[in-house]
Amino acid sequence: MGTAPTGLAGRSEEMRELDTAITRASTGLGRAILLEGEPGIGKTALLQAAASHAREAGMRVLYGAAEELEQRLPFAAIQRCLGIGTARADTQLSVLAGQIRGEGRAEGVPEIETDFATVEAILALLDDWCSAGPVALTLDDLQWADHGTLVLLNQLGKSLHSLPLVLLMAARSTAADEELNQLRHSLIGRGAVLVEVGPLSDHAVSQVVNGLLSAPAGPTLRGLLRDAAGNPLYVTEMLGALERESAIRIVHGSAEADTAAVPASLVSAIVGRLDWVSPEGLEVLRTASLLGSGFTVPELSTVTGKPAAKLVDSITEVVRYGLLREQGERLVFRHDLIRQALYEAIPARAASHSAVGRALARSGAPVERVAEHLLMSDRGGRDALIDWVADHATALTQRAPSLSVELLQQTLRVARPGSQQAGHLETLLAAALLWADRAPEVQPQTEEALQHVHDPALRSELLWVLALADIACGRPDHAAQRAQDALASGGLSPPEARRYQAFLSTCLFRLGDLPRAAAVAEEVRPAAAQHDEHHAMVDAYLTIAIVQLFQSHYVEAMDAAEHALRNAPGQAIPAYSLIALHLIRGRSLFELDRAEEAHQSTGEGMRIGESSGAMMLMLCHANRASFMFHSGRWDDALAEAQVGLELPDYLSSKTPQAFHGLMALIAGLRGDFATADARLAKAHAASATASSPTIPFFEYLPRWAREVRLESQGRRHEALADLLDGWRRGFGPFRGVGLLFRGADLVRLAMDLGEPDTAREVIAQAERSEGTERSTPRSRAIIAHCRGLVDRDPDTIAAAADYYWRTPWLFSRAQYYEDYAAVLALTGRLDQARTRLDQALDAYGQMRADWCITCAEERLVAAGLPRRRSARRRRPATGWDALTDTEHKIAALVAEGLSNPAIAARIFLSRRTVQSHVSSILSKLGLTSRVELATAVARQR
Q1: Which domain holds residue 924?
Q2: Do 77 and 173 belong to one domain?
Q3: pTM score over 0.70
Q4: Do the beta carbons of residue 718 and residue 687 sit within 8 Å?
Q5: Which of 875, 904, 924 is the last residue of a domain?
Q6: What's the domain count of the chain?
Q7: Torsion angle of alpha carbons 813, 819, 824, 827, nearest 10°?
Q8: Cα separations in angstroms, 904 against 206, 291, 607
Q9: Residue 739 vs residues 34, 659, 812: alpha-carbon distances, Å
């Protein structure tokens, strides 16, 4: 056959769509394209052509394909795209490869959220590459992509609109995988283009024939080719089969065929090529088919037992016959139908996989690569299989927990029941189930194992995993009982006893027994620190710190958290513990009115959360959103809340009510009641479906939003009743939440509705709870504020002025000035009232709190202050003046060429939050890309 290019015949429309996406990405407007079609229809040819065009356009091209045998390996497909594990892998890729392999995690501690951390790391890497220039990420055979890769692509689809990145993917239209379909719908919902690659037209088939045979098809050949149904691979293979049999002849300038040599199907056409391959070449192909769609020569050498030099001739032969092709450092089957035909023809495939697995194990191949084959193996070589699994299951669990569970379950079926080996495997399986986020399965598995495992060390480890599973399943009472039983048994070594004591302290805290939790933690802390038992020491300090925080001893809580952070090596401590310590420190600083330090501390926790994927990440966003709301940085608070809502479900299952509540509250205070109602409905729905209640120190947010809405509807008595109920039951574990942020609201509303006794009850309760020993500048100021409202005494309320002038909490300051103005107006001091009202309105204006502005003006008119047309400047909703300080900083850094991760590191935000801000900036300025934003910043300067 001739050598003219035929792969794109009849594909001009598809290529136009791909080239348009590439052009858009070059100008900063990302887009996703999904090609779908049957096997052999030409999807790969289109992707390869698009990748070539992207390179010609100066883009960085990342090209790879998913493989059927690697669907259980985390991030296998995207690793191939990025070049991880190849000679071209740079330092960044090597670090990322280590993260995927589980390096740097706290030993023996299950952190099931590592997929999220890896997704974040890859997104940050792509973000950095995009800041250096446009990128094309091309992934073929998407129907075989692993779970981690699909999660990554879904997240990437959410930020494409602001990145110079084109995402090109291809999948079989016959794929029925639910997760793939979810990704497909998600991408299309965000603007991805679905291109259905259909059969070639008769004219396009004629072009293929002309290109391959240098002659048009005659009537007979055209009739035969109709059986190919426009499938270009079938057309090509049919012509190749005819040529190999010398069944094509040129008659009067046209190509004609001998019908006797026509293959009956595409598969038979492909298999027909194998008849021409030498026995040595066939052996190479069959062995290669066991390794998957692609492999390296060293892998093939390991499995065949032949030196690479002796394989060269056979490899060259099968490449010449078009059965294999080179792809970087790997050889891949030209089409997976070739591999499938070879693979299905192998007798005793399970035994062959067993041999392949053992060979790879001897060569020191990655554990997950070995595990793939052992999982598909027979039961031959039982003892060798058991030994390998027992030695490598822990490493496999950290890298691919689901694969580890399957392999351990299979291995247990061939182990001798009741043997020491079986007990060891059952212990490993219990831990693997916990790592694989299958905690409910741990209890039956572990309790069954305990019936015949008698080795004290194994029993101790099984009981420990069972206690951790109880916590993961929300059963701290069961976990506490197990810890107490273990401690009472007398069979623990001193280090084990200290581990259980520290663990017991955390269980008791979860159960609300604060005094006993603190006592147990204080007892174990010195010994754990003395013996450098970091896990137990951190658990003890964590319990002490959070108990102090719940008891409103903020300085003591901060000291305990800081001591643990100073003395605990980060690599030895679970990420969730480190984040919790940073959050306790940040919350304490917040309660001590040290706003900037509070932001920085939660920022440290957020960075750890992003790099580890720990569940505590949701609390980082919730705390920062809350801090920013009270600081008056409402757009920044909304960005944090939006990012919190976009976290995976397992990271945000307890906080959607808080995030929706905060967004409803801001919308209500700004007078956007339609949005407030919608968010309140979502908060209610989240609360109704949540498996556990919202984190207690955020439950006041949806309640506050509901009360604002009741007031706006004129249902002020209902609002007061709801507020009073919350005050009496407690707005959360911190007195500061109730006192600082709701006490004045309650007193103000009670006085407006003619219920001074209720207002006095609130003040009396606040004075009793504060006491003289725990009195702070904040508590004294708030009590003076409330008492001045009740007594309508300007001098009393004026005593709080110094605190509110210095406080970082802008919204509380605005409310204070409004209340101060009202008291002044009611006592006839109208000029002073006007000054204080203007201060309040200016503060409200900075937050665009339009409903607050309207309410304040009407309240002061009712108090006797003459109405006047205000010339106040309110921050607009669009244009440069609509940007917050944070958004101005981010816009300037985008213009400098910094990526989102680099900006996040510069200003103590998460990458996702920066991404949210960039989207907000583009919306406010009416722009569509970072490129346009950089140009606009330059013009503005």
Answers
A1: 880-940
A2: yes
A3: yes
A4: no
A5: 875
A6: 6
A7: -160
A8: 56, 42, 9
A9: 55, 22, 11
